[in-house]
Structures are given as structure tokens and as C-alpha cells.
Amino acid sequence: MKIGELLQKFCLEQGKTRKEFASDVISPSYYCKIEKGSHRVSAEDLIELLKRNNIRLSDFFGMFDSQDLAKQLNLFHEMIVAAHYNGDKDSLEKIPNLIERSLLPEEVKKEQILIARGYLEIDKSSTEPVNWKLREQLREKVFSLPNWNEEKLTLFCNLMPLYDCFSVNLIVQDILKEYKPPFSKELKRTLLGIICNNLFLKLKIGEYEGIDKLVSIADAIPSSPDLVFYKNNIIFYKNMALYKSSNATKYLKKCQKAIEICAWLGMEAYAQHMSEFLEG
After folding, report:
1. Which residues fall within 8 angstroms of residue 213, CB to CB, at 6 or more apart?
2. What does the H/E/C string look like for 197-240?
3. pTM, 2 dp
């Protein structure tokens, strides 16, 4: 069964109207279109719908159509990323089990569980032990892919915090030499994500060499609504570097504005991480 069909099934089984089932998560009219398959539902809204209607995530994903592979993968990816950026470790810890109980092919399950555990490793506090074996498995997964295609770029982007800054600098240099504009929509997001992560790792260890070049490459990618998050991060990292090297208040204010924008976009937990990183 597909997402809309599954939601309709649970709605009917609970004897609820579409309005009751949709609660105040989404509008009844939009929910109706999701049931019919003409509109998609975000991972966050789907999870909230299931919670409001007392439906266990494992029950829902265990009934998902095994042939609808792309949608399942997208949903799990959205759930992982949303939990990561919202600082929701409890939800992130549940995702490997949800993937295990899904109807995905076994090899795909193993790969997705590995990636989910990678995010858990990234989100560990400084007091938690490092899982070196897992980190090596993740690095091997990245480099087992033969070329820097979009799949390999995305995987590397997601797992960059598990690498040391020196290695990242060398890899990113190679990537940026290989890819020249014009970029596809997906590639723009991935390259900006890679640049953001590289800037983060540089600033984390107080390395300022090469920051200007990375920022100029990011600035050369035209802005669009779907790139607001990345562009805002570039502004933050650029001005954080300037503030740390000059102690000028004008750069600090620009950093604070970037943090505010992130909070306004509904990413309060991520905005808090930015604030703590700035103050650290």
C-alpha cells in the first residue's frame, strides 16, 4: 500500500472523518489530496499525523508498499535529516529499527541503517565514546562508489563531520575542480551543503585559510527559495570567520541575524547549535 492508501485505511478503521484524522496538522482538503495520491506529505507532518492518531511508526512502515522504493527512501531520509537538525536524538535512535521493520530489500536496509547510525555518531556529545569501527565503515561506503556522482557527493556531504578537517579540505578541492557550472538543482544543494560543512570544520579548529575561496564559490551559485537554508549558513560562517579574526561587532551582528533567520524558519534547535558554536 502507498502512503495515501495507508492513511485512508487507518482513518476508516478508527471511524474518523478526514477532518478529525487530519487534526490541526494539515488542512482537511490537503489531507484528502494526500489520500488520493495527488499531493505528497512531508516526513514531519506524516509523523505528527501518526502520533495524533495513536498509530505506531513501526506498524505504518511495516505495511508500506515494497515496490514504492523511492518514496520509502525519501521518507526515511527526511526523517533522519529532520531529527538531526531538530536535535531530536530520541526520534533518530528509533529510525534504524523502523528501517529494519520496513519492507525494503535487505541490502538497502543495511545501507540506510548504516547512514542513520552515522547521523547518531555525528550527533554524539564530546563525552560519549567514539565508534571508530562504524566511522571506518561509513568512510568505506563513501569511497566504495567509483566516481564523484551525485549519490557519492550526497553521501559524503552527510557524513563530512566524521572526517578530519585536513582530509575534507583535500577531498573538497578535488570535488570543486571536477564540477563547474551550470549545476542541476540537486547538485546546487549538495555542493552548498559540502561547502557549509567544510566551513564548519575549518572554524571548529580555528583554520581560516581557504575560507574566502569557499565563500566566493558558494556566492557564485545563484540564490533560490530552496537554497535559503544553505545561503543563510554561508552568511553565518563567513561573518563568524570575520568576527573571530577581527573582533568587529558588525560581523557579530550579522551572525546573530543569520541565527534569527534560522529560528524564524522553524529550526529553533539548529539555531541554538549555531549560537553555541558562535560563542564557543
Report:
1. none
2. HHHHHHHHCCCCCCHHHHHHHHHCCCCCHHHHHHHHHHHHHHHH
3. 0.75
